[in-house]
Amino acid sequence: MTLSRLVLLALAAALCFQLATGVRLPSAAALRASSNGKGKDGYVNERPIIGILTQPGDPAPKGYSYIAASYIKWVEAAGARVIPIMYDMTEQELQDRFATINGLLLPGGGADLRPGHMFYDTAARLVELAVAANDKGDYFPVHGTCLGLETLSIIISGNTSILSEMDAEDAPAPLLYTQEAQHSPFLNALPPHIVTNLQNQALAMENHMHGVLMTSYEEPANRRLKDFFKVLSLSLARDGLPYISTMEARKYPITATQWHPEKNAFEWVTSLHIPHSPDAVEMTQEVANFFVSEARKNSHAARDALEESDMLIYNWKPEYTGRVTRGGEEQDFEQTYIFGPPDNRLAGRKQQQQQQEGCWWRRQMAKLLAALQA
Ligand SMILES: *[C@@H]1O[C@H](CO)[C@@H](O)[C@H](O)[C@H]1NC(C)=O
């Protein structure tokens, strides 16, 4: 491209940009660190974004995927924004999102946890990226909730039979701390009374049919799980067998809870006994504070503000899936974000872009700005 064409392009873009929005895009640097170097507690980023993996199945229609809005509200309440990661994304899309997010949340649900199933394979790839990033000194936190803990257990142990069936549905439980809990960065970051409340009251909302028995964790065949994760707490299934309710990686900022910290403040289905006491809701907030604080130690960022806004959850609207007139599983979630299959997703996005941005030139301008900064 000749210089004159470039100048023309820039002028046209600037004009169009002015007309379209009247605003300037913040630079990539402005999206990232708000302080120079490491701030208090190693924070390098006061605008953290959490990536949350979508999953197929109820309440999403066939071919679609979902995130229960409670997970999104949970991290938002602690000062983070959310980017959904569709379980059926390509490798390139996953890498682009990974380079933009500051932490990963693997939520609960009922997806198939076997290699060859897209949800599992995508989760495994994201965990691989997270471990590799941390190995390179790129601090990147991961938290798994319920199915998220189960997914992490299979990925790390490499054993698809590590889960046991158990009866712990609708079973808020106290946490039985292990010796290792004393030296846990996660538990030590929580206010001490939260740790005590989790022990003395049934604040941890357990709601699962599978889990990792302590006996499975101790089996020599599952050595890889034990080498990677330490167990911070156990809880008891209805038949009295102890299973892992909280764990934390030995060398990585990776935590997992079989219980649901997000439900206490944000889910209201009356067929479940979700704890809603002030102590229960305070716990929800403090666990979110911990996870989001971890994400503030990561400086991944989108290439520019437009790319970031294209990915953010604000492009979608939640549905009221918990309405009493609805039936089945979907009622478990008060609000749910539903994501279309890849084709549908693109169509939706193109439409949205036409409405919201309207201008091809704006995109070119953003590219030009990014090129100038590089
Ligand atoms: C997987 O875990 C189960 C449950 O602990 C155990 O019985 C089995 O031996 C393990 N399988 C392999 C291949 O390691």
From TrEMBL:
Highest taxon, organism lineage: Eukaryota
Positions annotated as active site in the UniProt record: C146, H260
GO cellular component: extracellular region; vacuole
Chief place of localization: secreted
EC number: 3.4.19.9
Compartments it resides in: Secreted, Extracellular space
UniProt keyword annotation of Secreted present: yes
GO biological process, one term: tetrahydrofolylpolyglutamate metabolic process
MF (Gene Ontology): gamma-glutamyl-peptidase activity
Reactions it catalyzes: (6S)-5,6,7,8-tetrahydrofolyl-(gamma-L-Glu)(n) + (n-1) H2O = (6S)-5,6,7,8-tetrahydrofolate + (n-1) L-glutamate
Alphabetized UniProt keyword annotations: Hydrolase, Secreted, Signal
EC supergroup of this enzyme: hydrolase
Annotated family: Belongs to the peptidase C26 family.
Name of the protein in its database record: folate gamma-glutamyl hydrolase
Organism: Tetradesmus obliquus
